[in-house]
Amino acid sequence: MKFLCLALLMLTTTWSLAAARKNDDDLTQALAAQRKSQIKNISYLLHFDLQKKEDEYKGRSILTIDLNRTDLPLSLDFVNNKILSLKVNGQELKKYPSRKGSLEIPAKHLKSKSEIEISYTGAYSKNSGGFLKSTDPEDGSEYVYTDFEPYSAHSLFPSFDQPDLKATFKVSVNAPKDWKVIQNELIDSTKTDGDFTLTTFKTTPLISTYLFFLGAGPFVEWTEMAGDIPMYLYARKTLEKYVDVQAIFKTTRIGLKFFTEYFNTPYPFSKYGQLFIPEFAWGGMENPGAVTLNEKNIFRGPVAISTYEKRDNLILHEMAHMWFGDLVTMEWWNDLWLNESFATYLASIAQDRALNSKGTWLSFFGSKTWGYWQDQLVTTHPIETDVPDVRTAKGNFDGITYAKGAAALKQLHFFVGEKGFKEGLQNYFKTFAFKNTQRKDFINAIAVASKTDLTDWTQKWLQTAGPNQVTTEFTCEAGKIKNFAVVQTPSTSNTLSPHRTKLGLFAASESKLKELQTVDVVYSEAVTPVTEVIGDQCPDFILPNVGDQDYALFTLDPVSLTKTKLAITTIPDPLSRMMVWSILSEMVRNQKLKARDYIEMAMTGLEVEENDFLLGNLLGRHSTLRNQYFLYLNNAERAELAEKFEATLFARVLTAKPESSLQMNFFDFYVSIVQSPKGVSSLGEFLLTSNQPKGITLDQDRRWSILNTMAANGAEVSQNLIGEELKRDPSTMGKRMAYGARAAYPDLKSKQAYWKEFFGMEKLPFSNFKEAASRFHGPNHEKLSQSFAQDFFKKVLTTDWKKHDDDVEIYFEQVFPSQLCNQDILKLSQSAFKKARNLTSLARRSWSEAQDELNRCVKVRSQGLKLSQSL
Ligand SMILES: [Zn+2]
């Protein structure tokens, strides 16, 4: 309907493009659609002048376009730049309508073939995206780079900044001669004149504006070939010694070969460059030919094998985007899942089949936790969702788009089979190369190749929100199954969906579970009887979704629930064990299991678990176990369990093979959860003496982790030690870690200083803010957190959220006093939320989610007292 109304409007009224922009520097889907119908054949000729020690740069852009109609004004996106001159078809324009984020070229200046030339100066971005500059504190070197998704290309050059207006780019850059200049394309020529070199790049093929890349600085460059594709790798000078170049090139080479063959489509760009970027806000970004990666993936010492595998997965994720996202791009941001779900799933396929990584599907399952979390929030949405404007798009880089969408693709693959899935993809790339698509184009390609009608599947999997809850019900008589059914409850959208899965049936002896059989089940109703098992041996434990092909919120039946300890300690398949861990943690969140019982059971499991990948996911950076330990237990419960929990973990550090991944997993997790006085004093000893457990290397990252925990626990020496450590590690990372560790220290005065910075006039650098905010509310500092709670709900009512699109989540995920987890704070939040008149759609969403989590935490803690069921 939206599009029909738009078409009518265009025919019957004098179109005012300025009026179509609801907010400054925002682009609506309606305007993007209108602009797409107006313009074609776009090419950008871009020149930039970059200098050292300057906050500004100069730019000159020439846009050449064909217009389908010249009776409409043309809206051009451009923000935070000072225009020096604007010429349209050779004629200088002095007056034209403009607003923050865009300008309008009146129709009378336009021809069917038009050329727009703009000279300007711009300043580097202070947000997490745009054209950014970072200075290395160790050697003073400056590095500049772009990060544009979804809507920041127009902060560097005037553009039609929407994914379906693909264009060619021809770029030249005048920069200091000791800088490397990197763009999506290969270098065409260079010419040095004095202290500067003019670098001209070859013309790119058709790409979307958000995929444009420009980076420069004294990067170290490595290069090798992958068949006939040149590979490049870049890192800043001070990190050169830590980069394991060969491992990264090896994964890249194997990945490029795999995807080229699997998609039966050659790599679409001229080179494959990867850059480790200072202070990069995200994990990675898929700029064609110039992928950016977070420096956290350069390891400054030995890490667990699962951490290496996570980096491989990131490399393959960004690489999968070269086809899905870069070669074929979604028309508009409502189909962002086409990019992200696909890259997430196909990265795992490549990792499993080409790299033979043992932990692939465990990690994939681990990432699904993000999807389950997001899908149970009040803000859940369908995988394919309404995105009326780019601000809404920014909020959708979430657990639904990545993890649930990837799980849906895994289910689709299982549903239609390998042949149909693979051939469908191959046809899709052949048909839509260098074009834009919608969901139906992708689904049609799979439907045709697999000869399967996917109408119902699409509606129920992609256009509904919330997980189905699924469990099994059975009765037995004389040791044989009498009745057996899969029971499904409707999702948030009140939908029962079609699923295909496998059920694992186990028998229990005193000491272990033994598999009886695995049953293939297709279900779509509320109750689906499984008749083929009737008369078979009665099981003691049933694991729904063996092999993890399905996506639903699984719970264990009451019989199986009594055997969970045996399940997490004796089921041979690690993925199955991990799924039991996850089911239990979801049951805690849904108040079906006491948090305390779960933590106690976890200790039993952790005493014997040997699988590196399971442990990497269970105990790693995003550990749900750790979050629940700190959030869902109250202080008294945690104090009671702490010594035992710490002792359980430390015993594994001492008995594990020295220097093994297993040992590192246990040690790093131990460091992150220590709170007992005994534990804190041990950490001090590790840091200050050479008395570490045999096999544990205290590299720089581990030293900071130890200091963080000591500071959070108020260890007095930690304040001095932070200063000492900073002398040892004056790098960007060191500065950030010191800033975060100081925020963790439980001292009112110091916290007040941080508070002032969090809400100050000057925006904090994104990465520093993220680090400090994540440590501000310590788990055992309720009194301190309490003293900021009232003020938080005052400040959020006056903050100008339009300036905080990039860091709004930090305010509501970290600065929000969720650690207090009580009714009073919940009420305070709810009443402030009702009063709020200053929220952007993103702020409203983040706040709703924080409040929803708080509400859940309050319920979990109070339910913990009521639940009598004990395992
Ligand atoms: Zn991605």
Bound small molecules, by name, code or SMILES, are: zinc ion
CATH superfamily of the domain at 2-218: tricorn interacting facor f3 domain
**Helicity, as a percent range:** 40-55%
Q: Terminal Cα separation, in Å?
A: 54 Å
The average pLDDT value, as a whole number, equals 94
- What assembly state would you assign to the polypeptide chains in this entry? single chain
Q: Largest sheet, described in full?
A: 8 strands, mixed
CATH class of the domain at 2-218: Mainly Beta
Cross-sheet strand order for the largest sheet: 5-4-8-2-1-11-14-13
Low-confidence stretches: 1-19
What structural category arises from helix and sheet content?
alpha+beta
Question: Could you please say which CATH topology of the domain at 2-218 applies here?
Answer: Immunoglobulin-like
> Helical stretch count?
30
Number of strands: 29
